[in-house]
Design goal:
heterodimer, A: alpha+beta, Alpha-Beta Plaits, five-stranded parallel β-sheet, globular, B: alpha/beta, Spore Coat Polysaccharide Biosynthesis Protein SpsA, Chain A, about 15% strand, binds zinc ion
């Protein structure tokens, strides 16, 4: 016997899709008559619309908790947040009416998916389904609101969508389209960097350009200021007046003069200042990160039609072995001009109590959610390995102070994302000690 | 042995006739060698007595100007970063290169190997590029080096050491040949550098008559350099600068223990081109731009100025100009016996230069010099005939056509504005 969804029932019985309204809706040319409005966030709904005075984060939390993990989030506020999934100005949507029509279209496509996909909890499968039901696929957009600077609105509440999307793309279910290459802070991995031209000596940005002047007759060459004498140019070496550009003098180059330290040099250097952690980096020290948009492939469509992912794709690589390998490599590289790795041990101290009170399955889901949240806070190169009551986080080539900052961020993030109090605690562990433990365990 | 035999003829001459026949060598060559040997002997004795005292080294700025030297600038800079003097300020100027030298300079700066990278989009000439670097230099001592040079690890320390004496305005470094094995002509230059620079400048230094702090490797007191306005338009700017420093009252020293290596021309045409240019430049600078020094009415010239100018006129100019005349006179006067006399004169050169080289082996502290000994046997003839012939051509070019003013060493638009001497 096939179970029929509430929406299918409502559509079959001529009922309208339900729209959960958050915040105040603007007046406009949209047609609320084609929707049923829901105002109680705990009631059932098919899509969420954001009005004025709400945030996408709130909507995402509601979607995450709901039984409709594929529900679209629509922003109709006059100043839509850049990473709202459907809003005026993206994908050719010109008005609030267009936006709501697109939302209805997504709801219709979601309803057409097989039941196991619609109710899935595997983030990779959900991401694939979201990609399948959105006109834009899994399109990357720039957003100043996130440290990565790149956001996938269609990913909705799924954290670290890039990680899942890359795995799906490697498996051939998604196709990559290059989006952008961004510079990232080597300390905190944020892409929110200020780029400036700087003095090569003091790295200050208060610099000016000034031409050099070459007096042919006496071979004197110096900054123009050395020749300036009121409106005239007078050679400081031979006291003759420079009268004719190109005949008795030339300006063969430009020099950079630093107002901070007085340094005179050729071209200025490029430097980066991280908006998030305040660190300053040379252009050479800043690494880059390539971002892609993703579209569903035929193999991806098949997977959705089957209602499940190939088990070979779904499970992450055997993390413990990877951790062992990375630890050995990282410690071997240390001292060869490279920074050593750092390790953070995340302990969810209240997890046993949660398991005792609300059941082991609930505790396991809370733990998985916490680990997922941790992944969202880390760099692409970092590794998170789940373990009893917490996780081990491997940060390659990371200084102790940067690791300490990461640990604090992780704790804050877990507190913010997981509604249940897990009493998270993150501390640095000596990589050598852990390597010894892991080798002994084998 | 018959009376028609040239050797018989030679042996039958009386003392006065012999003196006449060998007059050239006796008047123009012997005094120079005698003074040279004497000086080296005295210097050697002197340096044995004086130990190297602990002196405070001045702060040092290195200025390097180059045109299309992208391939060799890195080697030069790394050699400078290997010095016993650690905190060098290195200022590089790209003089209008088209081979990507500017990019290489910016790379070196990004790697913290150089401190300042200045770039001229068009070629301005070596003097101007050096002056630009000088305008930026902060060290008490400014060391000017050529891009194709590399240095002994203590070269910078040794070259700035004499500046501890406040009378010294410039110090000339010692130069050895890097590509000695490249060719015969390169080997000959090894001998020439050892006798002419390592030994010769030591002798000049003893008499305080060092006249040229070479553009390849020299150190200057920055205030002295700024006082004379840096370099003037080339070519020959290094000689000109040194003469102007001397006129300003500064002493010029030679640091025999400050070694740099350079590549010499390895083919005969390249060697000839280089020497033609050097000799033309020397003539122009000494006899045109600085002819005042020779004027007895000029009060600015010191006794030592007269000595080094006189030395140049006798050992370079007169030797070169008079030798062909002497040859002609020999042929006319002695007929077939002239060849005998000439052979003896040549043998004399060979012996004297061999003795010079052997003296150098004792005095000059440079490994591997002994390998050039076989070439030292040929050096006397090489120098007496080949080098003199080149010089003669150079003098003709300069005297008659002022060739040095058309030298592409200086860009055309700069040449047009440069003063004509
Ligand atoms: Zn500065
Ligand atoms: Zn001037
Ligand atoms: Zn940062």
């Amino acid at each position: 016997m096939v179970k029929i969804s509430p929406l299918e029932q409502s559509v079959r019985s001529g009922c309208l899709p339900r729209l959960l309204i958050l915040g105040a809706l603007p007046p406009g040319d949209w047609h609320p008559l084609s929707w049923r409005l829901v105002l109680d966030p705990d009631a059932e709904f098919d899509a969420i619309v954001l009005g004025e005075g709400t945030g996408a984060d709130e909507a995402r939390t509601i979607v995450e908790r709901s039984r409709v993990p594929l529900a679209p989030i629509v922003d109709v506020s006059p100043t839509p947040v850049a990473h709202a999934e459907v809003r005026v100005g993206v994908a050719g949507l010109a008005s609030v009416g267009d936006v709501l029509a697109e939302a209805a279209e997504i709801v219709r496509r979601v309803e057409a998916l097989p039941e196991p996909v619609r109710r899935a909890s595997d983030p990779a499968l959900l991401l694939l389904a979201r990609c399948a039901t959105r006109k834009t696929g899994l399109a990357a957009v720039l957003s100043a609101a996130v440290p990565d600077l790149v956001h996938y609105p269609a990913a909705g509440h799924i954290t670290a969508p890039r990680r899942h999307a890359e795995r799906l793309a490697d498996a051939g279910l998604l196709a990559r389209t290059f989006f952008d290459r961004l510079h990232v802070c080597p300390r905190c991995r944020s892409a929110r960097l200020c780029v400036r031209e700087e003095c090569s000596a003091c790295r200050g940005a208060d610099i000016d350009e000034e031409p050099t002047v070459h007096h042919f007759a006496c071979a004197h060459m110096a900054l123009e200021r050395a020749f300036r004498s009121g409106d005239l140019l007078v050679c400081p070496k031979c006291r003759r007046s420079l009268r004719h550009f190109g005949v008795d003098y030339a300006k063969p180059g430009m020099a950079t003069v630093c107002n901070g330290c007085g340094h005179v040099d050729g071209e200025p250097v490029i430097g980066f200042r991280c908006v998030d952690c305040g660190a300053h980096h040379d252009a050479r020290a800043v690494s880059t990160c390539d971002w892609y948009s993703y579209a569903l492939t035929a193999a991806g469509e098949d997977a959705i039609a089957r209602g499940a992912l190939d088990p070979a794709i779904a499970p992450p690589p055997p993390a413990r072995e990877t951790l062992l390998f990375l630890l050995r490599q990282g410690l071997a590289l240390e001292g060869h001009g490279r920074r050593g790795p750092a390790l953070i041990e995340l302990a969810l101290q209240a997890l046993p109590a949660v398991a005792a009170g609300q059941g082991a399955r609930f505790a396991e889901r809370a733990r998985a959610l916490a680990v997922e949240a941790v992944r969202g806070e880390l760099r692409e190169i970092d590794l998170v390995v789940g373990r009893d009551n917490g996780a081990i986080i491997y940060l390659p080539e990371t200084a102790a102070d940067a690791a300490k900052a990461a640990a604090e961020r992780i704790v804050r993030r877990v507190r913010a994302v997981v509604a249940v109090e897990l009493d998270p605690d993150a501390r640095l562990v000596d990589p050598r000690v852990l390597l010894g433990d892991l080798e002994a365990a084998r | 042995m018959t009376p028609s035999d040239p050797l018989y003829y030679l042996l039958s001459m009386d003392a006065a006739a012999l003196l006449a026949a060998f007059s050239f060598s006796i008047i123009l060559d012997l005094p120079r060698y005698t003074f040279g040997f004497l000086a080296v002997l005295l210097v050697e004795l002197g340096s044995r007595r004086r130990g190297k005292g602990a002196v405070r080294l001045p702060t040092v700025s290195i200025i390097i100007a180059g045109h299309n030297e992208a391939a060799s600038i890195r080697r030069c800079v790394i050699s400078l970063r290997e010095q016993t003097v650690r905190d060098l300020e290195i200022i590089c100027v790209d003089d209008g290169s088209t081979d990507g030298m500017a990019d290489e300079l910016y790379r070196l700066r990004a790697e913290n190997l150089i401190d300042v990278a200045l770039v001229c989009r068009v070629r301005c000439g070596k003097s101007s590029a050096c002056n630009l670097a000088l305008s930026r230099a902060r060290g008490e001592a400014v060391v000017n080096v050529d891009v194709d040079c590399t240095f002994d690890r203590d070269a910078i320390e040794n070259i700035v050491c004499p500046l501890a004496n406040p009378e010294v305005g410039a110090v000339c470094g010692n130069i050895a040949v890097r590509n000695a094995g490249a060719s015969f002509i390169a080997r000959m230059q090894v001998v020439e550098y050892v006798i002419g620079i390592s030994l010769g400048k030591r002798a000049l230094d003893f008499f305080n008559v060092v006249a040229c702090a070479s553009g390849a490797f020299s150190a200057f007191r920055r205030v002295a350099l700024e006082g004379v306005g840096g370099m003037d338009v080339g070519p020959g700017e290094d000689l000109d600068l040194t003469l102007r420093l001397r006129q300003a009252g500064w002493r010029i020293r030679f640091a025999h223990n400050a070694w740099c290596l350079t590549d010499v021309p390895a083919t005969v045409p390249a060697f000839v081109r280089q020497r033609l240019r050097w000799e033309r430049d020397a003539l122009r600078i000494r006899l045109r731009k600085h002819r005042r020094i020779l004027d007895p009415r000029d009060r600015g010239a010191t006794a030592t100025d007269l000595v080094h100018q006189f030395d140049y006129i006798v050992t370079n100019l007169l030797v070169t100009l008079v030798f062909p005349v002497y040859l002609g006179w020999l042929l006319v006067t002695y007929g077939d016996a002239a060849w005998m006399i000439l052979g003896s004169v040549t043998l004399g050169y060979v012996v004297l230069d061999l003795i010079s080289f052997l003296a150098a082996l004792v005095v000059v502290d440079r490994p591997g010099l002994g390998r050039a000994l076989p070439y030292a046997l040929l050096f006397g003839a090489f120098n007496a005939y080949f080098v003199r012939a080149i010089r003669l051509v150079a003098y003709a070019q300069e005297w008659i056509f002022r060739r040095s003013f058309h030298d592409a060493y200086v860009p055309a638009r700069v040449r047009k504005q440069a003063p004509l001497y």
